[in-house]
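Aim 2 progress update. The chain analyzed this quarter is reproduced below.
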Amino acid sequence: MRAEGLTSLRRVWRDHRRAMWIWAAALAVVTVFYLAFWPMMGEEMAAAIEGMPEGLMAAMGYDRIGTAAGYLEAVIYGLLGPVMLLVYGIGLGGRLIAGQEEDGTLELEFAAPVSRLRIYLERLLGSWLLVATLVVATTVAVLVSGPLFDLGVEPLNVLAASLGLLLLVVGFTTLAFALGAAGARRSAAVGAAAGVAVLAYVFRGVANAAGVEVLGALSPFAWMLDPEPLVHGFEPQSLALLAAISVIAAPLGAWAFARRDLMT
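Predicted structure tokens:
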């Protein structure tokens, strides 16, 4: 596919770039805002949560919040970042085929002399690029905040955590996109992907609180956070598991999309 021929990809970018830049700015501001509290709240926060039940602390990821890496994981990579990015990514994934089929704005692309597979791949790539831009904005905000607020987290470890976050969000974005391409309505595609994401988050919390290891093994949130990338850096096995969500969902969605009767 030549760059000048990426009509669907360029249309996705053009249609969504304004909202994406607003989201990017919001994510950067929220990230810096919460990290600015670290110098004041590090020891105080650790003391405040000391009386919490141990299981609840583990479930919420607060058991390491007294360290800069633990605070960054619990607040940005374990909560605010995934929540905001998943809201954006899952909504976008459900919109790009299912939503635009429903409102009729995809009909011109179906009428053009291009294959369904090309439309599918370009739109999927467009969703990935938009999500990646938001993760980059979050990462830059963390890297800038590091020296400003004396976080002391290695930049390479921040990149490792951000790569995990990117693969997590891209995975659920791809799931919503593939479900919509396979014929699910936008609301069903978004609801199913969001439901799986919530269940994955609950699984990790229960696994940490109750020691049910099998639930942690099934949770993408555990794959992303439990290797502690902000402390230990890149963990290839966990990253491979996160990437597998997209690697499995994308081809299945393409297969179903190619075989659908789009007239029904």
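The first helix runs from residue 7 to 35. The chain has a mean pLDDT of 88. These observations will guide the mutagenesis experiments scheduled for the next reporting period.
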